[in-house]
Amino acid sequence: MLYRKIEELLKERLSQPSERVPVVSGARQIGKSYIIRYVGQQLFKNFIELNLIEDNKLRDNLDSVRTVEEFYLAISSFVGMQLGNADDTLIFIDEIQECPHLLTLLKFLRQDNRYRYIASGSLLGLTLHHTHSIPVGSMETIAMYPLDFEEFLIANDCGRDVIDYLRGCFENMVSPVAAVHNRIMDLFRRYLLVGGLPAAVNEFLASRNLAKVRAIQSDIHMLYSADASKYDELHRLKIKRIYDLIPSNMENKKKRVVYRDIEEKKGKRSADYEEEMEYLISSGIALEVKAISNPKFPLAETESKNLLKLYLNDVGLLSDMLFRLNPRPILEDEASINLGALYECVVATELAAHGHRLFYYDNRKYGEVDYLIDDFSSLSVVPLEVKSGRDYRIHAALTRFLSTPDYNIKKGYVLSNSGEVATRDGIRYVPVYMVMFFNCSGGSGEDIFI
Description:
Layout lengths: L5 H9 L6 E5 L6 H12 L2 E6 L4 H8 L4 H12 L9 E6 L6 H12 L3 E6 L2 H6 L9 E5 L5 H7 L4 H13 L5 H17 L3 H10 L2 H17 L6 H19 L7 H4 L11 H9 L3 E7 L10 E10 L2 H9 L4 H4 L8 H14 L5 E5 L3 E9 L4 E7 L9 H7 L9 E5 L5 E3 L2 E5 L19
Parallel strand pairs: 1-4, 1-5, 2-3, 3-4, 6-8, 10-11, 11-13
Antiparallel strand pairs: 6-7, 8-9, 9-10, 12-13
Helix pairs in contact: 1-2, 9-15, 10-11, 11-15, 12-14
């Protein structure tokens, strides 16, 4: 079984009663149902799974439910004697967005306290936005993503002592020994090929066969591209077009969404595709990176919604589309091949998985920096530049960014394939895989009481 960090969080939430029902959100095919099922069956004698996508009869029955008693009657006809009480029974509502009114009902089910509950959804962001009767404080939304690089390392038998050693190198700004760096970079390059979708990772671990891994990735990409069934044909076609354009956008210099390319019509603007963008982002299959021209902490206060970048939610899907069955450019790090899109994609997915909102710097005068993140410890902004080649010390835009007094930037990072960990002129150079240590936290991790 693949190790997932979210397992411990779910155990913590389900081991004791809570005022809120945990609801795990994220794209399809990232392992939400599997990990909830695994944890639920460990902790509860009776684990009841209600899959609202696969079981049409169950969904139809629950579609008319509006009260707690109606809910119990509806599910009892499907699960019968499996029901116990709040101490030994967990009811898992899978893909709850298929019956949005159940999100409203969660509060009353929890208050009734007859059983314990957990839910999942792949379009929760979109559903919550259009569901106006959700009682405040009734649920805790927990975001889930494909396997991050640390989880991939553990899946490949990389010991936690090695990860702890690398974390120490990152925190103390010390270069790792060459043998360790080379081994981790070797696994990082394979992560670029395989990505973090559980089915692809499991196939890689079982066979090491790239063709079989690619077949899984292609199937999932097709699912993501076509899975907008709640919309009419016109909206579906535009969603598919925007999604399919992401790889080519990432190969462009600016990497931004070019709205006139979506329908090949001049004069198109971001406002013309708000609903389609919302679907792609809320479903978890695309990550949005918003532009900042005048960075101030917190970044959300100065974001621009027009100059938007989209990244795929999994680097393996991107490498499949860009390189198909030829792993050589990635594994051998060929100098003639630009791997910048892959490196930027993996950094985006890592930052998102660690809780960061994604921004980039775009200023006509000073240039562009790949990522900006909030540093809640110092209450300042941290710029990140991603380099896939050997010229990682050349970064004019980042240098100008750091030298702008108005920004009050305390430090910046360059992430590259070099094993060097060093600080020069306020810029910290670290291996690209150390992005796994950029956790979104603002303190020591101790409990804070106010």
